[in-house]
Amino acid sequence: MCGIFGIIGHAEASNLAYLGLHALQHRGQESAGIVSSDGARLHAHRGMGLVHDVFDETVLSRLPGDAAIGHVRYSTAGQSILENAQPFSVSYGGGWLGIAHNGNLTNAIELRSSLEAAGSIFQSSSDTEAIVHLIARSRAGAPLDRIRDALLRLEGAFSLLFSTPDMLVAVRDPHGFRPLALGRIGNALVVASEPVAFDLIGAETLREVDPGEMVVIDRAGLRSERPFPQSLPRRSCIFEHVYFARPDSVIDGVGVYEARKNLGRILAEESPADADIVLPVPDSGVPAAIGFAERSGLPFEMGMIRSHYIGRTFIEPRQSIRHFGVRLKLAPVRALVRGKRVVVVDDSLVRGTTSRKIIKTIRDAGAREIHLRISSPPTRFPCFYGIDTPSRRELIASSHTVDEIAKYITADSLAFLSNEGLHRAVGGNAHCDACFSGNYPVPFPESADDRVHLRLVAN
Amino acid sequence: MCGIFGIIGHAEASNLAYLGLHALQHRGQESAGIVSSDGARLHAHRGMGLVHDVFDETVLSRLPGDAAIGHVRYSTAGQSILENAQPFSVSYGGGWLGIAHNGNLTNAIELRSSLEAAGSIFQSSSDTEAIVHLIARSRAGAPLDRIRDALLRLEGAFSLLFSTPDMLVAVRDPHGFRPLALGRIGNALVVASEPVAFDLIGAETLREVDPGEMVVIDRAGLRSERPFPQSLPRRSCIFEHVYFARPDSVIDGVGVYEARKNLGRILAEESPADADIVLPVPDSGVPAAIGFAERSGLPFEMGMIRSHYIGRTFIEPRQSIRHFGVRLKLAPVRALVRGKRVVVVDDSLVRGTTSRKIIKTIRDAGAREIHLRISSPPTRFPCFYGIDTPSRRELIASSHTVDEIAKYITADSLAFLSNEGLHRAVGGNAHCDACFSGNYPVPFPESADDRVHLRLVAN
Amino acid sequence: MCGIFGIIGHAEASNLAYLGLHALQHRGQESAGIVSSDGARLHAHRGMGLVHDVFDETVLSRLPGDAAIGHVRYSTAGQSILENAQPFSVSYGGGWLGIAHNGNLTNAIELRSSLEAAGSIFQSSSDTEAIVHLIARSRAGAPLDRIRDALLRLEGAFSLLFSTPDMLVAVRDPHGFRPLALGRIGNALVVASEPVAFDLIGAETLREVDPGEMVVIDRAGLRSERPFPQSLPRRSCIFEHVYFARPDSVIDGVGVYEARKNLGRILAEESPADADIVLPVPDSGVPAAIGFAERSGLPFEMGMIRSHYIGRTFIEPRQSIRHFGVRLKLAPVRALVRGKRVVVVDDSLVRGTTSRKIIKTIRDAGAREIHLRISSPPTRFPCFYGIDTPSRRELIASSHTVDEIAKYITADSLAFLSNEGLHRAVGGNAHCDACFSGNYPVPFPESADDRVHLRLVAN
Amino acid sequence: MCGIFGIIGHAEASNLAYLGLHALQHRGQESAGIVSSDGARLHAHRGMGLVHDVFDETVLSRLPGDAAIGHVRYSTAGQSILENAQPFSVSYGGGWLGIAHNGNLTNAIELRSSLEAAGSIFQSSSDTEAIVHLIARSRAGAPLDRIRDALLRLEGAFSLLFSTPDMLVAVRDPHGFRPLALGRIGNALVVASEPVAFDLIGAETLREVDPGEMVVIDRAGLRSERPFPQSLPRRSCIFEHVYFARPDSVIDGVGVYEARKNLGRILAEESPADADIVLPVPDSGVPAAIGFAERSGLPFEMGMIRSHYIGRTFIEPRQSIRHFGVRLKLAPVRALVRGKRVVVVDDSLVRGTTSRKIIKTIRDAGAREIHLRISSPPTRFPCFYGIDTPSRRELIASSHTVDEIAKYITADSLAFLSNEGLHRAVGGNAHCDACFSGNYPVPFPESADDRVHLRLVAN
């Protein structure tokens, strides 16, 4: 997953991009980058790591101009290379171009093959590079025409920011898979994956960029277009509400914190538990646990403490300490759980290994019963629209029943939110829930092997 | 403030010390160190920064032996120098000695002056170095006799760990200002400022080290002594319960999480508010806010989001963004607070500047009324026993009434917990509350100027 | 300027590339990179800085395979960005391709413009990227055919290494501007800018790659081709002999050390000086000074000491210390020069500022007379074939007579080697001496401004 | 070995100390430190590594005041710990004290034992810490009286700088083992191990500090004392001239460059060789080789090229490349030595392993005969006065004849300079030559084991 930010018309553009990326840091910790425009040319800096590691005052001072786009990228096990860091910036027939992408093209392999056959070269393993080639190869003349041209070739999930020396262009795919919001600070306009980036810099949130909309902002102002030929049903990602977005964000007009509380409330209705207290798995499970506690009438307790001091590389003891990794990060309040019947609320259950460790840790702390409640349905299908889910083989719910999972994770009981409850909690029926339901709004290549072979990565 | 950890009789002594220090990281982030003993000599490593920055596998491999003591040190504005990093380790007439200290000697200046007059040299600005000199200058022969000798000269707050090639010695001052607990893992014994360090490494908590007790552990086993001539009333620090200790710790037999909930409950009784929701200032205000919500019947909401990505050096925008520092760390959930009457619960109020910023931020997010409730009394007096409070001049409550403070921080109402409520919540009457009451159990030098002049620092 | 190295058929290919690049480090200190081939795909690592900073054992272990190419890049004031670091590596229609380039294409802007017009994108400001695009866009099918195709489009100076999963290709432009040598270690074949890279790894030097030759090496062996339609006169860079190559190198069959001594000998014949001792400006002026001393009968003295401890960023004193930068690097032996008439031999004189400082420093040390002798003609013209000379405006000799220069640098006398002497010393008449004579073997774009505008950089 | 620098009376004291240490960097690369005085107190910074790594502008800005002392420390395999970095700075009964030491106390163990018995603690393994304790324990009142007191207890080699808030004190032991020079810049006075530090900062060299002299400099001026009761014969270290000092230094009134040329001249007289050319082992063997060439009438050639790019940690190829380490550092000019009879001049021969590798490398390059000439006598005895020689067991000349050594290193002939020739070349007979002759001017403890046990290190 990734986060994107853009600004145009502000003397401190790259500084505000830096802050905006900081507010979006939860969307990607692997790499960060900013491309600024001084009106004549673009300036770029990208690096591996967190925003405050990649940038300092010296680096920011080399990103002059009144416009900038930025990108933070998620962390995966493999393919963590600088070449994939965004925004990309290139020089081509239309001049200078910067691009930042959140999402995943479902026709990436096909695009790449045909572009390579036509003589394009690829320096990264990201699908985003294909978009740049499409723009460069467009027969249209003006940069904006080229962008329009290229957009027609894209399939799948994409929230995009383009930067040229003259303008900032923000695009959201017709389904609106990934979020994108529009704001204002003084006379400058800003675009970001989540409005929390606006809150931090003191900008006002105007509205979301609509699915299928292209917003063009230059020094003269903003205009909106609909570059895609047909209108498609809105399918914004429901997992943003479940887990990904920050709780203080508003996504698609829905407050994430309140949506999560609703998840917990409906979960309590659907799957109550005879217990003494309700604990969240912090931090992501907190709002749902508050909702669960409210609806069930059980007391909410912050019964697991999350450590803020975990570094990237932690030395484990040579002798096996059971469930060490989880202990380092989450510690139960022993005096609280001892002898109690405990409801634990978590946002999702993917492989089951972490839940198993958490339950063991709480049981070791003396809990009498542990009832795990998950504020989303079982994750049975991989996402092809930008969320970094593991392959289907690793998704425990794709091959095990709820009872089998409960047994594996050693919970006294386990329940998931229903798909109906999920949609009811979030509101509307315009969300993509493919990871839970298998209903994929956009088809994707059959062979996962191809995808692995080319090592294309989502953004 | 600082945290200390000791272990003896374990093949992975320094590795476990490293993990134990990690669990105590909240007690000090400025420097970290470990001194190990291989039975013949000591090995040391100290550095500035967090535990996982100071140590890596190579460094730990150079700390052999089955015993180790460790130390984490708090971060202050000035005097952040490596020379003050602990544990100290020296060679002297009695052989090798390591020492780790949590607390503050009230007679440090006097000890230092007399030691310097007698020919001792000081390489740090820490009061701990004086203890080493007292041991080195003792006329007693055996190391343990020298330690006993030196202890009689110490006044104030001290939880101490000594390491010699043969043994580990743990001492707690007669008042028991600073916590110290004893545990076991396999055949090894462990000592730590808080039992959370035992939880992490899978050790069992045995008991606390008593005020005035000296525990001597060698390869033969453990024996307990009372080296101080007179028994003094227990005065364990009440601020550990209010703020300092981790909520999953048990200090002096009292669970910190439950104690904090009690603070909130009694605060709600003493100073209710006519409001819609209760928000904590995360993370430290959470348990008290839960208690406040429970007792007041108002809903608890996690209405401020704390960022986990704050680095040490953050670049602020050149143009003034109001209350930027707080925004970076704490973001209100706007959709939640908009139009609401909000109770905000924080653990303490020291200078008032942060509270003022928090209230402003919540007000900007649209709250209708903001009622700040502090789960401790006004902090009117500096601590001379190890907590790093600012000078009295900077404590807003030392010179302002509650009404004046409320006005300064722009709260619609402000209330503190009463001192009686504080003691009732924590239980017993054996706590030092000098920072709230001015009742100092041990006298200290009149002139704060002297203290500043010599730049002696607490541990 | 840059250095390149290639190897194929050796189990430790990337390790030996690392060492080979180390031996070529004098040819470029800004960035370093290696692309290895495991027979199926390429692996790459590039970074800013010296070879031993960019690579460590972990990084090298991620560059598997029995073939590798490497590149070191020179340091310039601006445009020092990672995007320009080589070798480039891409995926394109023909599969994987790596490329390392030493030289400068004189038709780079033209190539780039036409490629951009045809839809290619450029991520660097290096002219080398154009070569990759030409290969990717070739209508030929097999990689080798595509390379042949692309070579026909190149003008100017280029020694090139290409890596595909199957083979290593080494090419030298028809004039042979930049050196390239071929060697063998065991059954593996190696290619390098200078044979000093072979000496370090224990490889045997076989021969140079001929101007206009393409050497194709795969697991089956080596074959040589002449891909260019017409034969052009050899014009190997004479400045390699004057300054750039390492003195222990053999370039174009000529030993560099001996060539430099010859420069000094002929200089002594052409422009003797009535003096007491001969000093080199170390290290580059040493062989010429030895030759000058030998021919003039004056004693050679190592009268200036060069410091080996200069870091990149050195803090200068706030108050002006005269000629501080030079002092830090070069210190005269005061006892030696005091009262003496001194001949100082340097390899070239570009801006005059350094010479001025050196002379001042020697004069301050007490020298009576200082006669500067330069072992090359006045540098009057910029190089467009790969040497990083400043613009013509900055070349003092392009606008000042020798007498004027002597006055500016405060030398008692100044003399340059004649162009005839230069060629006589190096041997043969097949060298490019454009920087001295202005006789450019290959034309280049009129407007230097264009070049600056696109910020294309030589390799 | 170490280098020391002091300055008093200059507004940029710590900046100039930084530069002075840079000029003395050849005397120690392990650690560097500066202690400055602002008239009221001392400020210190020490770190591991080179001067330009340890200090930057921020660090230097925290070292205010018009006086400073600095220290660079040599690099050894073991015991490379920050605790040993100098200058030491302490607070004691006489106030603040800083100390920088070049040399080695022969009674260090005895001093340490008696100080520890009296109650002193030691935080380092350096003998210098004992000096501070002696001062702190002196019954004299004023700092200067205490220093005088302590000096009477010291035996062995010591050039010392003391800093108090009021004054700078420079002392040289009665034999004058280690050099120390006095200079002036404007109204400020400077002291340094070698006058090259004065040259760099533009200071004028006044004279050396005499053996047995104590120079006291305060804001009022300079006065000289003779604090030691008896005058002892000058025994300044002859190895400074052979190898250690920079060639542009003047030590004890003798120019080092000229002394080294004399060593070569006399060596040529004593042990001529029937050969074609003379090569130095760069950089230290250069002046002696020039002298050898001059006297023998053979041509001097810079026939080995030294690389300037060797980093601390260099990755060797897994497969054995013969004599790899030396190759990395020194490369013969093959075209020059091929078929020649070569005289190689080096400054000293300690273990023989490096010479063996150098000869092999030159022989591999095609030399017909190799005659090694060493411009000092065989190193048969360890130094106890500050030079970091290996133990006697490792000195090849302590157990092998010259013929045996020649055979081991595979030289066609080998000759050392005679001890008489050594003294004649350097001038005077007032030098310590214990490492060559075994004539130790000051006795030292019998048991080297004791020394190792306590791990005391020379400075």
Question: What is the number of beta strands of chain A?
Answer: 23
| Highest CATH level, the class of the largest domain in chain A | Alpha Beta
What's the mean pLDDT score of chain A?
91
Instruction: List the total number of helices of chain A.
Output: 17
Looking at the structure, what is the overall shape of chain A? elongated
Largest β-sheet summary of chain A: 7 strands, antiparallel
Work out the largest interface and the residue count of each chain. Answer: A-B, 63 and 62 residues
Low-confidence stretches of chain A: 448-455
* CATH level-4 homologous superfamily of the largest domain in chain A: Aminohydrolase, N-terminal nucleophile (Ntn) domain
> What structural class do helix, strand and pairing data of chain A support?
alpha+beta
Spatial order of the strands forming the largest sheet of chain A: 3-2-4-1-10-9-11
Within the CATH hierarchy, at the fold level, what is the topology of the largest domain in chain A? Glutamine Phosphoribosylpyrophosphate, subunit 1, domain 1
- How much of the polypeptide of chain A forms β-strand, as a percent range? 25-35%
> What is the domain tally of chain A?
2
Rg of chain A, please?
Answer: 23 Å
Q: Give me the oligomer status.
A: homotetramer
Helical amount among residues of chain A, as a percent range? 25-40%
- CA-CA gap between termini of chain A: 5 Å
CATH architecture grouping of the largest domain in chain A: 4-Layer Sandwich
